Amino acid sequence: MQRAPVRLGILGAGGIAGGRHLPAVRELGDRAEVVAVADLDGERAHAFAETWRIPHSHDSLEGMLDAEDLELVVVCTPPGAHRDAIVACLRAGAHVWCEKPPTLSLADYDAITAVEHDGGPYVSYVFQHRFGSGAARLREQIASGELGRPLVAVCHTLWYRGHSYFDLPWRGRWATEGGGPTMGHGIHQFDLALNLLGDWDEVRAMMGTLDRDVETEDVSMAMVRLESGAMMSVVNSLLSPRETSYLRFDFTDATVELSHLYGYDDTSWVWTPAKHVAEETVATWAPTANVASSHAVQLRALLDAMDAGERPPSSGADGRRSLELVAGLYASAITGRPVARTELTPDNPFYHSMSGEPASRTAAVGA
C-alpha cells in the first residue's frame, strides 16, 4: 500500500525556502505535501503561501505546530534560530530537516541530540552535495579500496559575496551567524570531503577579515590531518571574483577531482589514473547514473529513512563531524596553535561558541 504524502511545514519564508526547498518537494511528487508555512512576518508567510499554493500560513512556529499535524518541518531560518526551532519541532513529534550550518555551536548541537529518541523523530541537516551519484561512486570506491589509500586532499570554496550581502543584520556576526565563510559556505565542501574520507584528527589554521565589514572572518585556511593519516588543505573565501568549488582526492592509484560552483552532476568529476594502472581498469571507474547533487535527492533519502523508521543521513554523529571541524578551525586560528578533535569537549570555550567567547542567544524565526 502506498503511503500517504508526508505532511510538511516550512519555517522561514525567505529565499532559500522558495528557491530550493519548495522546488525539491514538488520534484518528489506525491511523497510529501507542504501544508503550512510559518514566519515571524505574518504578511510574508501569507504571501509565500499564496505564491506556492500552500493551504495555511502562520506568524509563529508554535502556532503552526499547534494547528497542523506535521510529520516533517523544514527549518529555513537564520542560524541563530536553529536550536530552539528544532527542539520545539522534535518535542511536538515532527522530524526536522534544517538548513546549514546546523547550529551556532557544538553545545547547541548536543542539546538537540539529547531531545531525539530512538526511532525518531530525528533532525538531519542540509548537506546535499553528499547525495549526487559522483559522490556515491567515489564513496563505493573508497570503501572497496579500488583506488588505493587516500593520501592527499584539497578542499577549496572560493566564492564571492559583495559588501551588500552583509546588510542583513544577522550576517557576519558571531552571535547570530556563528562564523563567516568557514561556517556558512565552505562547510558544504568539507562536509562532503569528510563524509568520503572519514573523521579528522588535528587542524592548524589561520583566518582574517581582509575586506568585508564583519565581526567574523571573510577568509580562512587550514591544514587538516585525518584519522587515516591522509592530509587535507582547506580554503574558505568570500573574496574570490572567479568563484569555484574544488575538491581533489589523491589516492595511491588515482586522482579524483570535482569542480563546480553550487552543485554538480557526473560531468563535473574527473578520474585520473596513476601511471601503473591498467587502462581497462580505468574504464570502470566513472559514475554513469548522472544524479546531480540537489535538495531533492537528499530529501528523498530523508523520506526513505522516515519510512523505514531509521536515522537519516547527515544526522546525529554523522551530521556533527563538519561542525566539529568548524570549531577546531576557529579554535586553531584564534589561539594560534594546532587543535586536536579530542579537545573539543564541554570544558573547552570553543565547544560553546565558535569565537571562544560567550555568545548571546537569539530566538528570531524569520529568514
TrEMBL record:
The keyword Metal-binding does not apply. InterPro entries: Gfo/Idh/MocA-like_OxRdtase_N (IPR000683), Gfo/Idh/MocA_Oxidoreductase (IPR052515), GFO_IDH_MocA-like_dom (IPR055170), NAD(P)-bd_dom_sf (IPR036291). Residues 137-254 form the GFO/IDH/MocA-like oxidoreductase domain. It comes from the Bacteria. SUPFAM superfamilies: Glyceraldehyde-3-phosphate dehydrogenase-like, C-terminal domain (SSF55347), NAD(P)-binding Rossmann-fold domains (SSF51735). PANTHER family: D-GLUCOSIDE 3-DEHYDROGENASE, UDP-N-ACETYL-2-AMINO-2-DEOXY-D-GLUCURONATE OXIDASE. This is Gfo/Idh/MocA family oxidoreductase.
